[in-house]
Amino acid sequence: MDKPIRNTMLLKQQNKELIISAFREIGQGTRNDIAQLTGLSISTCGNIMRELVASGELIAGDMAPSQGGRPSKIYIYNADTRLALAISLVANGAFNQIEIAVVNLSGNILVRESYMQPLSQLSFEFLDSLIQKQFENTPQIQAIGIGIPGMVVHGEVLYCDVPNLEQLNLRDLLQDKYHVKVLIDNEMHFKTFGYYQTHNTANLKNCALLNAPENYTYGAGFIVNGHLLRGNANFSGEINYLPYVSSREELIAQCSRDDTFVDLISKVIISIITIVDPKYLILCGFRFTSALVDQIRERLASVLPAKLLPELVLQPDISDEYLTGIITVICNLITEKEPYAVE
């Protein structure tokens, strides 16, 4: 393909994303409204909006009240024309908690279901049965996003708190069966991105999220200059590989005792501070308590000057932000934006 043609197609796609984002923001509007919001010309908006009407993503409505000139047609964003399926997995003791949400292009939840499944019985076949049920009930689903409590590279689960999912390429398996876009990622990326989306302020442009569930290993996620840090191989945040323990079993054992947990997690936090220097550090997972956070804060203050310490924010339950992260990513995916793009 010639470079000028490729550049023209790319520019048109970018303009289309701008217009869709504007409609997602205001719900409905005229060509003039969208042109003012996006900075695009009225003719460019009109051409793309006609294509969106043809695809069903916009609905042509009534004429806007005249203000002295030629009346303009109102276009309404049809968020239900394409749907997505968000699934969060959380290892919780001997059970696995599964949250399922069917959402429209505006991120509104149309269906939400929860399941508790023993870890030993949670398999790809069980997970697939839940997905198949949603496709049978809602054939408009065009994308699937799944958060995994483990390490994921190119859709393959390298290790996981759900052993039956290890060494499976969930992305390829689901794409081959359902012929839709699929994004599989580790839970910490979704939780961190969802937290940033939910609590989005200028102060959060440099923050870290540290997750410590009971009876499992810890993990982290980082927002640096307003962007999620994923790294070259999606390995960012896999802090259980820091060389403070010799095995996964030792790590879980040390996290189970308050004294060794405080010592270990303080070392981890100091490592995070020296590498990404966050302004805020969100502590989530039910292993953290107010009393333990006070001890951690004292331990950090004995090592680093106060001016270098991030503000510690305790929020044990991060489940809503987790699901929000998945929903935002798959809505971006289905509208052909960068998955972790920030509005």
From TrEMBL:
Keywords: Carbohydrate metabolism, Xylose metabolism
Gene Ontology BP annotations: D-xylose metabolic process
Any one Pfam family match given in the protein's UniProt record, by short name: ROK
Family assignment from sequence similarity: Belongs to the ROK (NagC/XylR) family.
Role summary: Transcriptional repressor of xylose-utilizing enzymes.
Name listed for the protein in its UniProt record: ROK family protein
Species name: Anaerosacchariphilus hominis
